[in-house]
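Bit of a strange request maybe. I'm writing a small parser for structure token strings and I need a real example to test against, not something I typed by hand. Could someone generate the tokens for this chain?
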Amino acid sequence: MMFAALLLALQLSDPQGVSGSSPDILVDFDSQVLPLLTRAGCNAGACHGAAAGRGGFHLSLFGSDPKADYASIVQFAEGRRVNLVDANKSLILAKPLGQLDHGGDVVFEEDSSSVAILQTWLKQGAKRGPQRRLLDLRIDPADAIAIDQVQSIPLRAIARFSDGKETDVTEWTLFHSDDPASVEIFDGPMRALCHRPGKHVILARFWNRIVPVSISLPYDRRLLLPISVVTSLNFVDAEIDAQLTQLNLTANGTA
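Reply from user aminoacidic:
Good idea to test on real output. This should exercise your parser:
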């Protein structure tokens, strides 16, 4: 997809311009540039987010210090990482695209919306932007139940900002599973797949917010021994019974 076509597609899917892809709307460094770097792993502990950085380039871990990151990208080393005359020659763009060797993998595709946002930001003068705050991160669904081990659960992340705008930030949200053998995350489109019965929790990280997401796979009753049913006695029992029902389990007898 050509760059112009990509911008048009993004504007149609985001009429309020919250993706920052439109050249008429100032890209916000904190809420738009940093999340795409986090999603690509650039500021992870194994890369430039390490305590000492990597290759002379240091970023705060997962974008926790936007002010310092802006200085590191735009101002440090006489601003050599950004080229305001020719955006495509900026090191912050050329290296993750694999156009220049930097000791890391290629993390951006040339026709991706992440590259479109970076190009727009650079062409706008690499300003820090309005510095809007993230008020809420909503994951849909927040509590999902899979029918079986082959049904994947689509995941969607919606961010609400201090300027009153909401946008789909799924593409720049990092979904993480501590136990991929139980629940695995797939990209393009973003989805989760349960491999083992039970109630599992994955984490969704966008910018400075982390949200837990519950993914459940009920047990097959044919493989379980009969368990006695206990009537709920109080609100604690009711909550536990609801969880057991969701997992296709029944309660043990009274102890």
